[in-house]
Amino acid sequence: MTVRDLLSHWGVRRRGSEVVTRIQRDLAEHNLETLPRFDQVAIDDEILVRLSTGVSPSTDEALPEPVRRRPRSRRQSRIKHLRQALVIQNKPTSNAHPR
Questions:
Q1: Is the pTM above the cut of 0.90?
Q2: Who has the most CB within 10 Å: 3, 91, 95, 98?
């Protein structure tokens, strides 16, 4: 998920100080955190939302480098839709009942 995706769950597009505080509070109430911190990377960088470990990463601990999200190409979009179609086609039919 990108930071932009995360923000959309709160109905916002920007990370002002009040928005950051509200999202951090809401995540903490549900024992969640982002890695890396969503307020310390670019808005289109990928982040991971995970259960909080309760331990702040030390300065010696290597954090994953933010992944810059590239715009999806038409080919990638087509492949995604193709995969979805294949999954639907390969689902078992409801008519087949074991006897």
A1: no
A2: 3
User: CA 40 to CA 78: how far, in whole Å?
Assistant: 33
The β-bridge partners of 12 are none
The residue ranges of DSSP E strands in 1-99, in sequence order, are 32-35, 48-51
Tens-binned pLDDT, residue by residue, of the chain (99 aa): 999 999 999 999 999 999 999 999 999 999 999 999 999 999 999 999 999 887 665 444 444 555 555 555 544 554 455 555 544 444 455 555 555
Domain boundaries, the chain: 3-89
Separation of alpha carbons 99 and 96, rounded Å: 9
